[in-house]
Every structure is written in C-alpha cells, then in structure tokens.
Amino acid sequence: MNLEPPPYFEIEDLYQAFDGQAVLQGVSFKVPRGRTTAILGGSGAGKSVLLRHLNGLLKPISGTVRVTGIDIGAFSERQLRSIRRRIGVLFQDGALFDSMSVGENVAFPLREGGERSAKTIADRVEEVLSLVGLSGQQAKMPDALSGGMRKRVALARALAPRPDCILYDEPTAGLDPILSESITHLIRTLQSTLHITSVMVTHHLASMRYAADHVVFMKSGIVRYEGSVSQFDQSDDEAVRAFLRADAMAISPPTSDKIESS
Amino acid sequence: MISFYGQLGLLVGDVMVAILTSGFRIRQTLHQIVVIGVGSQVVVTITGAFTGAVLAAQTYFKFSELGLEAATGPVVSIAMCRELGPVLAALMVAGRMGSAMSAEIGTMRVTEQIDALRAMGTDPVEYLVIPRLAAILISMPILTAEAIWCGILSSQFLTVDLFGIPEPWYTEQLLSHTRSSDVIAGLVKSVLFGFLIVIASCHRGLSAKDGAMGVGQATTRAVVDSALAILVVNFFLSLLLERWFPTHLVDF
C-alpha cells in the first residue's frame, strides 16, 4: 500500500516566453508535500519565472499547474485568492511595503485574511517575529533594516497566516555568508518544526544541500535533473556536471601553479 | 495604441468589478482624501484666485473701452464655473497627485510589492485604485468649488476695489447672469476629470517596469495622459453639458 501523500504541486509541460524569447520549455516536475524542494540552476535558467507560476502570479502559455490536485490554469484572480492565502511567498528583495512598519507588514496578511481582533493580530505578529529572531522590532520601518533583517521580516510576513506552503525566491541572494547561512538554517528549522511544504529557488549548492530534500535542476528553461539531493552529485547530465564543477572551482579556485601547469 | 486603450479598458472593468464586489476600505479612503483633497487645497485656491484675477483684468480692460465693464463679473463667473475652475483645478491635481500616484504605485510595481499584494490574496485594484478613486471623486467637486469661489472673489476685489465698479452693480450683474446650471456643469466635469486622473495615473503606475527609469517615465506619462484627457474630454463635455444644463434655461 502506497502511503506517500499526493504532491503539493504538479507541473506538466509548462511553456512560457517573454517578447518572443522562450523562458520555460516544457517543464515538468512534482513538489512532494511537507518537504523542501530546491529549484536549482544558474542565472537566466527560468527558476524565478517558474516559481511565479506555482501560485498563479504568471499564467503559462501552455501546460498545467496543479496545486494540491487542483488545476489552477483557468482560475481568475478572484478564484486564485483562496489558494494564494495558503501559500506564503518570500520575494528576492523581501518586497516589504515601505509605507508600513515591520509590525504592520507582518499583520497585513492577517488583516486581509479577515482577522479583526487587535490582540490576536499583535500576538501572532510577535510570535512570528520571535520565530525569525526579530522580537520587539514591530515599530521599525523597512528602510531602517539591513538586507538580512528585511528578508527575515518578509519571512515572518509569509509565515503569519499559517500557510501550508512557502515559496522562497533566492532567499540567500545578496547576503553575506554568515547571514546566508542563518537564513538557510531558518528555512531548515521551519520545515522541520512546522512541516511546511517549501519550494526554494537558489543557485547556491551549499544552501540546497543543507535545506532541501528534493532537487529540480534547470538550465535554459529545461529541467535537467529531478530527484533526491544525495543522487544529485551522481547525475551524469552534462549541465549538472558543469554546474558542480563551477561550484567546486568557486569554493577552491585553482592556484596559479595549477593554471600554468594545465 | 490598441494595446494601451485595451489595458485602460481592462483597468476600468476591474475597477467596476471591484466597486460592485468588494468592501469599502474606509481607512485608506480617508487617508487619500487627506493626501489628495486637503493637500491640494492651497495650490488649487491660488490657481483659482490668480486665474480669476487675470481674467477679470483682461475682460475689464477690453470691455471698459466698449462701456461694458459691468459684464466683467458675469464673464469671469461663468468662465470660472463652466471651464476654468474645473479644468485648472483638475490640471493642478493631475500635476500634483497624478504624478504622486503613478510614482508610488510604479515603485511598488518594480519592487515586487504589487506581486506581494497579489501573492497574499489581495487585489491591487481594490487595495490601491479604489480608495484613490473614491477620495478623488469626493475631493474634486470641493476643490473645484473652492477654485471657482477664489476666482470670483479675486475678480470682485480687482474690479470693485481697484477699478472702482460699484459693488452692488457688480454683484447684481454677476448674480443675474450666473445660473445654478453653470455651477452644476462645472462640478459634474470635476467628478469626471477626477476619474480620468486616477485611471490614467494608476494605469501608468501599475504597468511601470525597468526600475527607477521606468517609474520616472510612468510618472511623466501619467501627468501628460491626465492633462490631455482632461483638455480633450472637457471640449466634448462642454458641448454635452450645454445641452443637458443650458446656461440660459435651467435654474433652481
């Protein structure tokens, strides 16, 4: 008997193009429920565009996106609202509302979700802010925050309405290695404690290895690998091998002696 | 061109759907009334006052040669009520608030804040456009009335206090030739101009792209679109309103 729960997202044969240039070319993969899936690839691979199809922010030219088994292709913006409220999104630069304080930003999805009790909202805001290590920072404005703090506030905002899935768009981009490690650790902790389905777009192999259970590797809008993290290093796909080689070179660049001898 | 008008049509459709199907955001609307209405009062009243004054001066200079200086009051009054008051108030609001609206929404667009709204299940039209529309529909008639009032007041000061036309004569001529229909026509225009400003500016903001440069372009285009729309629509409205509210027939 198969006890594996059905996937959270099922993507089938997705095509997308902008200004005549193909960005996604027949992308198909599945995101297992309650686990972290990393969408890995270099710049311009179509990772962030793909992520925006998962909650209907972008409509594909063709192909199917199923969220918990429901095909959202024909859904209107109004019909998508209930689905989007179940899926939190951490945007690349946080996308915090700069006219609102940290507290108001985090409270926003709660108010939009219909919560009216000021005490319930304040308690939940404090709870998620302390979860991301920013307890008591409600009054600060986004402009007064560092890049890492902005991302953590954005994560708190995504977590506030208790979503059952979170999409992370390059969560470690633009952060120093220590902050990057801290955010990755936070994503792993959230997944292990709250059992939220997570989809993380990244080009950092280290982040992927630490936080993800499942990997989708893309190049030029095509999925070149889908499978477990442990099997990723053994893939014989040429694009995967090139990506791994480039990453290894970035971690320990060849010395001048090696370059000369080669 | 077709795409532009198509997008505008879709935005108007979304606005209508949002008005009919979503709740009214009182807090945001009151905030926008303060920003658009209260914040525009000084600029609109100064514009109205000096336009009325310069119109009165030129009318008086020419009409006094013909012995018609008493007509200065009605000419200024009717021009301010039917044309200059609503048009100039709308142009000033377009310059001041149209640019601000498109810059604010455009910045939200290029920094993914609009996508964040959508991702949280909030309709950007309902959250950003409707409160601004409600605020401007409430504010514009009041601002226009203030511009008209300041224009007539400055005209009276100039012709009575400086040029020496007897005050009762001026007032009697002004009131006998200015009808309620003139005021109504101006206020009706102001409501429509407010609608045009919000639709043109929010459309440019919502479709902004390419970072800071794109926001700058959206802002410039929002003001140009609004101003052109106001001037072109005003011409056709003047003809229509003359049929619906003719200056020589309707009075209350």
Describe this structure in words.
The complex is a heterodimer of chains A (262) and B (252). Chain A has 262 residues and is an alpha/beta fold. Chain A has a domain at 85-202: P-loop containing nucleotide triphosphate hydrolases (Rossmann fold, 3-Layer(aba) Sandwich), CATH 3.40.50. Helix content of chain A is 39%, strand content 24%. Chain A has helices spanning 47-54, 77-84, 102-112, 118-131, 147-159, 177-194, 205-211, 229-232, 238-251, 256-261, and strands at residues 9-18, 21-31, 36-41, 62-67, 70-71, 87-90, 165-169, 197-202, 214-219, 222-228. A six-stranded mixed sheet of chain A has the order 6-7-8-3-9-10, with helices on both faces. In chain A, a hairpin with a 2-residue loop joins β9 (214-219) and β10 (222-228). Chain A is globular, with a radius of gyration of 19 Å. The mean pLDDT of chain B is 91. With 252 residues, chain B is mainly α. Chain B is elongated, with a radius of gyration of 21 Å. Chain B has one domain (43-240). In chain B, α3 (72-110) runs antiparallel to α5 (124-162). The longest helix of chain B has 40 residues, at 26-65. Chain B is 86% helix and 0% strand. Chain A binds chain B through residues 52, 55, 57, 77-78, 80-82, 84-85, 87, 89, 91-93, 95-98, 108-109, 112-113, 161, and chain B through 21, 108, 111-113, 115-116, 118-123.
